[in-house]
């Protein structure tokens, strides 16, 4: 396993409950929140595989930023 992916995976797992709560608190739909949560993980893994993992110093903050953008996209699609 890519060492950056391993590091980011550990950080993601450590913060998963806080991230899930952040997403659910804004989306208020458990199914949509789960989809967004999973998409954040996919994007994190893709960033690590592209070699961008070293630039992600604060994984929790990065994930919240990605989640925020995905939530905005979700809200726009619901309008």
Mean pLDDT: 95
Rg over CA atoms: 13 Å
Quote the distance from N terminus to C terminus: 41 Å
- How helix-rich are the residues, as a percent range? over 70%
Strand segment count: 0
How much of the residues is beta strand, in percent? Answer: under 5%
What is the count of DSSP helices, taking H or I runs of 4+ residues?
4
Structure notes:
Helices cover about 80% and strands about 0% of the residues. It has helices at about 5-15, 15-25, 30-50, 60-79. α1 (about 5-15) runs antiparallel to α3. The longest helix is centred in the middle third of the chain and has 20 residues, at about 30-50.
Question: Descriptors for this entry?
Answer:
single chain, mainly alpha, 4 helices
Offer a quick outline of the entry.
The protein contains 4 helices and no strands. Helices cover 81% and strands 0% of the residues.
What are the SSEs and their pairings?
Blueprint: H1 3-14, H2 16-27, H3 30-49, H4 59-78
Helix pairs in contact: 1-3, 2-3, 2-4, 3-4
